[in-house]
Amino acid sequence: MHKAGFVNIVGNPNVGKSTLMNQLMGERISIATFKAQTTRHRIMGIINEPEAQIVFSDTPGVLKPNYKLQESMLAFSEGALQDADVLLYVTDVVEKPDKNEDFLSKVQRLMAVGIDGKKIPVLLLINKIDESNQADLERLANEWHSALPLAEIYPISAKAKFGVDVVLKRIKELLPECPPYFDKDQWTDKPARFFVTEIIREKILLYYDKEIPYACEVSVNSFKETDTNIHINTTIYVERDSQKGIIIGHQGVALKKVSTEARKTLEKFFQKSIYLEILVKVDKDWRQNEQRLETYGYKLD
Length: 301
Ligand SMILES: Nc1nc2c(ncn2[C@@H]2O[C@H](COP(=O)(O)OP(=O)(O)OP(=O)(O)O)[C@@H](O)[C@H]2O)c(=O)[nH]1
Ligand SMILES: [Mg+2]
Known about the structure:
By secondary structure, the protein is α/β, with parallel strands linked by helices. The chain folds into 2 domains: 3-174, P-loop containing nucleotide triphosphate hydrolases (Rossmann fold); 192-295, K homology (KH) domain (GMP Synthetase, Chain A, domain 3), CATH 3.30.300. Helices cover 35% and strands 23% of the residues. The chain is built from 9 helices and 9 strands. The strands form 2 sheets. It has a 6-stranded mixed beta sheet, sandwiched between helices. A 3-stranded mixed beta sheet has the order 7-8-9. It is globular. The two termini are 38 Å apart. It binds guanosine-5'-triphosphate (GTP) and magnesium ion. Guanosine-5'-triphosphate is lined by residues 13-19, 32-34, 36-39, 60-61, 127-128, 130-131, 157-160.
């Protein structure tokens, strides 16, 4: 008997979805930072075992879109409701069940009505319990139980890897009997270049303030790999000239830091020496431009 299925991770921004994905996978596959809206794509991470294949999907936090890029991000999150065999709805110890009733009612429907008659199990994960206490947690769990009575509730700390193994065990029980969806040696649906752009974006999120990280997109121009090293040429696109100056910084110091830190992370990720070049260019208002978004790999309906 072989089990396989899609286990989709959804929830509001910054609750710890990507941190959880990385813990479930045992790899840093999805970038996670202290800033909301870190994840912009649906990223699959695949666990392969002789008798099972679990296809996790990390998704962008659910938001009310203000510009076209955010419409695409929301489409990735809502799309993950359509093909889940098991849904992981992640919340945290500060968020209340009434924050996003729209999306929650869709989650409720998945459990009660299902897709094509198939009801979808939902595990409601209350994350960051390292920042709470027993009494508050019990109160919150009761509120969630009233909001989503059909969901199984698990308190976890993704960061401390507390409760994650229990969730993984439950996922394996819930997986349907099914042949594998992907080759059993495949661990993600994304190409190497995608991880390059994400790792550079992670450094931008970490080192720049306010709107700057949200106005940046990263693109790989060339990726040349030998047995021992990889030569990567990339471009950071910003929306305006003033942002280009900020990214580069006085005498190029800011960009140098991004480049150095990205290179270190890339070397860990690929286990090879990395030569990294980063150009900075203006792509005016790319976040609102459907054609540009498509070339950057975002989907719009
Ligand atoms: N204290 C605590 N912090 C956590 C925990 N899990 C995640 N975090 C922190 O929460 C922040 C957001 O984590 P992410 O994994 O990027 O959250 P996300 O839900 O993927 O965010 P978006 O991609 O923006 O939607 C980071 O600073 C994490 O370190 C946890 O269990 N405890
Ligand atoms: Mg994320």
